[in-house]
Amino acid sequence: MTSTQQRAELQHSKKGSVPCITMPMLESFPIPIPRPEEQACIVASLDKFDALTSSIIEGLPREIELRRKQYEYYRDLLLSFPKLQEVAA
Q1: Phi and psi dihedrals of 14, rounded to 5?
Q2: Which candidate, 60, 78, 79, places its Cα nearest to that of 68?
Q3: Between the CA of residue 42 and those of 34, 37, 47, 49, 75, what are the distances in Å?
Q4: 5 Rama sector, left if φ>0, alpha if ψ -120 to 50, beta otherwise
Q5: Do the beta carbons of residue 3 and residue 15 sit within 8 Å?
Q6: Alpha carbon distance 79, 77 (integer Å)
Q7: pLDDT of 57
């Protein structure tokens, strides 16, 4: 909450143990709307975030499968001991 919003809230709130804001007071609060340039910047940021989230959702199962195969490969490599006959020969 910005300091302007805080000041507006305090000016309109009723004093007591807990400040109370009625619906007409809430409706009279100014709501700042960003300039079109700022809105475009916000939209661009949200679009980048959405693209990143989508790629994670699509790519994550594939990455998990690749890591599982990699784990199995190295596990088998480390735990496959030569048979006793091969060692004695």
Answers
A1: -85, 140
A2: 60
A3: 9, 9, 9, 11, 47
A4: alpha
A5: no
A6: 6
A7: 72
pTM of structure? 0.40
Start-to-end CA span in the chain (Å): 79
Note the pLDDT tens digit of each residue in 13-44. 665 556 678 888 888 888 899 999 999 999 99
Of 24, 1, 2, 73, the residue nearest 12 (C-alpha): 24
The DSSP call for residue 45 is: H
Residue 66 token pair: 């690749």
- Amino acid occupying residue 49: F
DSSP state of 14: B
Cα of 53 vs its chain's centroid, Å: 8
